[in-house]
Amino acid sequence: MDRKYNQGKAKGGFSKSHNTSSYRPGRATGRDSSPKGGYKSQPKAHSVSGDNNYNRDDLIEGRNPCLEALEAGRSINRIMIAKGTHDSTIAKIMHLAKEARIPLAEVERSALDKISVVGSHQGVIALASAKEYCTVDDILTRAANLGHAPFIVILDGINDPNNFGAIIRSAECAGVDGIIIPERRSVQVTPVVAKVSAGACEHMMIARVVNISATIRELKEKGLWIVGTDGGATQMYKDVDYKSPIALIIGSEGEGMSRVVMSNCDHLVKIPLMGKVNSLNAATAAAIVMFEAVSQRCGL
């Protein structure tokens, strides 16, 4: 790859129409596999178009997600803990909450059950400020500040919160600079996503954009190489130079990447499958490719 990465803003930076407001972690305050490519989704616990409680983004449920939110400096209004819930993690949550002067309330477990979205709150729910998102430029700035070539993941219409949460968790572990998702027709950061990510969403920069294809074109203008995962590709996923500035695209659980997004890819890659089942879960496929990038970038 010899495309020159331009750290400066492409044509004045990413258009505001492609980005929403600013979430910065740490601030106080697959589609069914078919020749077209996709990855089979996990069974869905909820539908994206579900009730208002499911789609709310101000609930943080579970011990690890609440602990990670506190340690990341997420703005939290109140933490509710079920009566009789005591262990070292709960004790640490209470300690951090008191240090941050966040109100604590001991409530009946049934009260948590009534407001829980994920159904496994583990005796603790935090009421936080609504989730905010970053811009694409924020993600690129992070990579520049860390002194490495950008490594971005783009999700083209992932609708399963389990897949999204798992991808966030793997991306954070793989050192991905940020994730880009569409503003519409895609699952957002919900309590289910936060729970599945094991709190990783508190440390991962996530940008929402109006137009994925336009964002990809702007990333290419800045020198990033676009790698799309597709079950019908001829190039193997290991045959790409992931040390270069990279944006990895993972298609949705039902249809893979859209035709327009696919046409903007520099590389279409596939993962070899040896069994009778001809599909991988989107989150699993994403993790395989992300950690190939880690391997190359670490010189392994």
Q: Any descriptors?
A:
Alpha/beta knot, 2 domains, 10 helices, 7-stranded parallel sheet, 60s Ribosomal Protein L30, Chain: A, single chain, 300 residues, 4-stranded mixed sheet, alpha/beta, 31% helix
**Low-confidence regions:** 16-52
Given helix and strand content, the structural type is: alpha/beta
- Measured between the Cα atoms of the first and last residue, the distance is 19 Å
Tally of separate domains: 2
Round the mean pLDDT to the nearest integer and report it: 82
Number of helices: 10
Order of helices and strands: HEHEHEHEHEHEHEHEEEHEH
Tell me the major beta sheet: 7 strands, parallel
> Count of DSSP E strands?
11
Main sheet: strand order: 7-6-5-10-8-11-9
Residue fraction in strands: 15-25%
CATH architecture of the largest domain: 3-Layer(aba) Sandwich
Oligomer description: single chain
Helix percent band: 25-40%
At the first level of CATH, what is the class of the largest domain?
A: Alpha Beta
CATH superfamily of the largest domain: SPOUT methyltransferase, trefoil knot domain
Query: What would you report as the Rg, rounded to the nearest angstrom?
Result: 19 Å
What's the structural blueprint in terms of helices and strands?
Elements: H1 52-55, E1 59-61, H2 63-71, E2 76-82, H3 88-99, E3 104-107, H4 109-115, E4 124-128, H5 136-146, E5 151-156, H6 161-173, E6 178-182, H7 191-196, E7 206-209, H8 212-221, E8 225-229, E9 235-236, E10 246-251, H9 259-263, E11 267-270, H10 282-297
Parallel strand pairs: 2-3, 5-6, 5-10, 6-7, 8-10, 8-11, 9-11
Antiparallel strand pairs: 1-4, 2-4
